[in-house]
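Sanity check

After download, print the first record. It should look like this:
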Amino acid sequence: MTECFSVLAKCGLDVDCNGGLVGNVLGVIQPVPEQWASPLGDLLETYLPGKAKLSIKELAGRTAFLAL
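Expected structure tokens:
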């Protein structure tokens, strides 16, 4: 995953969208490396009223449940 992001960054252009797409695909195929996950601390901060802070693990579990 790290190598893919490195190549994307070096290519330039639409790096944010391409990185988001590649990250989603690779995150489904293999676990996210600890070096990328640990700085987030299982916390997603949003602007949603009443849901300003969410657990990433809980959100992923709820999403997977709805997908099944």
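If your output differs, re-run the checksum step. Summary of this record's structure: The chain has two domains: 1-32, 41-68.
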